[in-house]
Amino acid sequence: MVTDGPDQPDPVTRRGWARSAPWLLRRVSQRYGSVVVAHLRDAQLAGLPRPGYWLLMALASGARDATQLVDASRVTKQAVSKVVDTLVTEGFVLRKTNEGDRRRTDLVLTAKGLRTVEVIRAALRTAERTFIDEVGAAAWNTTVATLAALALAPDDLDAREDRVTREAREVRDAREVREEKEEG
Length: 184
Fold this sequence. Notes:
CATH class of the largest domain: Mainly Alpha
Oligomer: single chain
Shape: globular
Mean pLDDT: 84
Strand order of the largest sheet: 1-2
Number of helices: 7
Distance between the termini: 65 Å
Number of domains: 2
Helix content: 55-70%
Structural class: mainly alpha
Number of strands: 2
CATH topology of the largest domain: Arc Repressor Mutant, subunit A
């Protein structure tokens, strides 16, 4: 909610802060989270950390290792590593040596992980049906389209990540060439 007149309250003062975009996005995220928690509890899968939901969804959507999870989730490698450790310990994910490159570790959903992904997907559908009932399909579709445009727009972070990724790849490639020369 943008206000610009002297008679309109600033959205971040008094209770107006509860109508600011960051707060509203947080509340919608919390509503999604509450529905997911309830579905997981009903499926006797309670206790999964919330960041684990999104990493499981990324794995189900094609991510295969921690690097891809970092890219998909846009959180630090350390944060991904900590959550992956929990996912492995709790039986949602297995670590497997990559067949093509034994130095790499692939992450694979277990049967429990796949079941959890299905429960999360069902929970998200339930939440979205509730939102559509509350605001109507047209408003919901417009909201999703707007969020997609904002979330998927390139930004400075993307440019930095691209540069860092390129530099890291160059360093890795140079190291591999050096190692191959040393072995040969």
